[in-house]
Amino acid sequence: MCEDHSQLPALPPVLHEVEVKQPIPLQAVDSVQITTLMDNVTDMFMPDQGPAHRYGPSSRGVPCGLMAGGVAVDALIAEHGFSMLITVRKNGTEHRVLFDAGTSPDGVVENMRRLDIDPGSIEAIVCSHGHFDHTTGIDGLIRAVGRANMPVLIHPHFWRRRRVRLPGLEPREIPSVSKPALEAAGFEVIEDAQPSFLLDGSLLVTGEVARTTGYEPGFPPQDAWLDGAWQPDPLVLDDQALVLNVAGKGLVVITGCGHAGIVNICRHAQRLTGNQPLYAAVGGFHLNGPQFEPLIPHVLDDLEAMRPQVIVPAHCTGWRAQHAMSRRFGEAYIPNAVGTRFLL
User: Under CATH, what is the fold of the domain 29-56+71-343?
Assistant: First the structure.
């Protein structure tokens, strides 16, 4: 049943058009495995559910003088950050792409070690946007693999110097990636605001997402340093997502923070691909905090209209939105945790 949206916060319409001249021929894949390398939550007792397979209690140990026997559990790390390893299977071949890299320099590579994932198997990196909780772990990856010879796909606004204004606090600058450092590490930096392909047309990077709902506000507290002064930068136009078309199922949409709005993102993915059905939405939906929580019923109504079979809200989605999605989507809703593998 639809909710009453008359009490939505009084925000100006947030609209931004992106021209789509014709559908993009996204090639279908046989399957995709999405492995959570970093998220805000770790839970070794979370049960398997549908396509989600959990890591479970670790049998690994690390030296620790405090513990009887001198060994502690080598447990997975969670932090306020996000990173997914996308393994695409098609025609008997397998390819891996890293989507975002978490908050700490070594969190993602340490979790890869614990999950027995070879960092050298990654063929490309896609950054959802320039915020530090999605990028800093590239530093550890560089040290793990040596000189990197792989592309990094970003939007041109990725490099923007930014700050955030929170109530009761002084504006705080957001750490950003050094372009010279990234290039010196051997990465091929590819900047594009337009949609682009990886893996022979099997993996679509949305580029800039059209803002058409009018009610998803981006990130209102954000400013950017432009023309020698701090100026409002609420749209976060560098926010981009990944899209795959799984044969016989439909689109899998993977977001970072979802600053463009999860409804905007999913609709844009459908528009880009000729209105393919939405099978799964996975990632950060950014519905946490007093400015976003009033939007939850409207977002859920519009998501439900797209009839997804799998909903995996993560990272910055927020607990109120998580609870609401659990009630609304039933078994289609799957909570995330570090180490989870989704077989789609």
Answer: Metallo-beta-lactamase; Chain A (3.60.15)
Q: What are phi and psi of 142, to 5 degrees?
A: -60, -45
- The domain segmentation of the chain, as residue ranges, is 29-56+71-343
Helix, coil or strand: residue 52? strand
Tell me the pLDDT of the chain (344 aa) as tens digits.
Answer: 333 333 444 455 677 877 777 788 899 999 999 999 999 999 999 999 999 999 988 888 999 999 999 999 999 999 999 999 999 999 999 999 999 999 999 999 999 999 999 999 999 999 999 999 999 999 999 999 887 789 999 999 999 999 999 888 999 999 999 999 999 999 999 999 999 999 999 999 999 999 999 999 999 999 999 999 999 999 999 999 999 999 999 999 999 999 999 999 999 999 999 999 999 999 999 999 999 999 999 999 999 999 999 999 999 999 999 999 999 999 999 999 999 999 99
Residues 6+ apart with CB under 8 A from 233: 160, 162, 222, 223, 224, 226
